[in-house]
Structure prediction request, 329 residues.
Amino acid sequence: MQFLVTPKMGSSFREPLLYSFATEDAEPQDLLVKIYDSTAGEVVGEKMLYQTSEATIDIAPYLRSLVQPTISLSSSHSITPSPVSKIVSVSANGVMSPQCLVLGESFDLSQPKMLTTRFDVDGAQESQMVVKRGEPILFTLYAPQPVDIQIIAYAPIGSRRYNITFSGEPQIVDVMISARQLPVVASRVEVNIYNSTTLFRRLNFTLSTVQSSGPTLLWRNWLGGIESYTFPRELRLADRVDIDQYATSTELVAKLRNARRRVRLCSAFESPEELERIKGIIAATHVYELKGGELVPIELLTRTIEYGSHGEIRQVVLEIEEEWKGGEL
Prediction:
């Protein structure tokens, strides 16, 4: 048994992932083919081929059904393998293929890459941005070598330093800097990302106490990077209320079972590059709203991109429904 064709490292699961193999026996035989998720250490798919000497299979459909571009938070600073990439291998009658890193979209694996495009402005090594105080800092990067992240929280009374590291195999990782672990009085956070011993990127965050009127939504882009945007404009469209009533021996009791508010979210006047980034939310299968430092899954009822007379993006418009009241009337 030998493998004749295997996917190259960094192939996309949105394209065919072909494995070809031959039994090298004169007589055809039955073959049990297994797909292994090496990161999780488990079999994620099996296929029986009957009476064959050579065969080619495409494992991409199996992987597409497994990849769930979810986003999660932890209570501490962390670096974790992203759910949007897989390290896989295939066995045929016990003969194992080489491991392969499979991604949502192919890119150069020889260099580290920031996959959260919000933090990757023109490839600059250093960037500045503002985040709301109390919100976690989330981003995604590709790490071809061990990654060390130095976090410095600056406050009027001094600074505090934290370090988190990832020393696993080359893959996509999610980085979370927990607001709960930063000093309450911190006004600025500096994040230095080291690829092995070389500074790859420096991110500077100013912590703002100004609260916008609109919600902050999070999703994953086509590469698998975590993106976020705070919609400044929120238009109330409709309220829907469901009430349960029942009579007792002495009174009529009414309880509010469900109350929902439908709102329209509109992006602000942004640069063409920023609008291009934001529009990725309309194709996202998992969208979250950040509420009180927690991620709440939401459903987008409508997803619209409005264009100008010359084909330029003017704004991104979404409609969502949210709970707004509860209890006994």
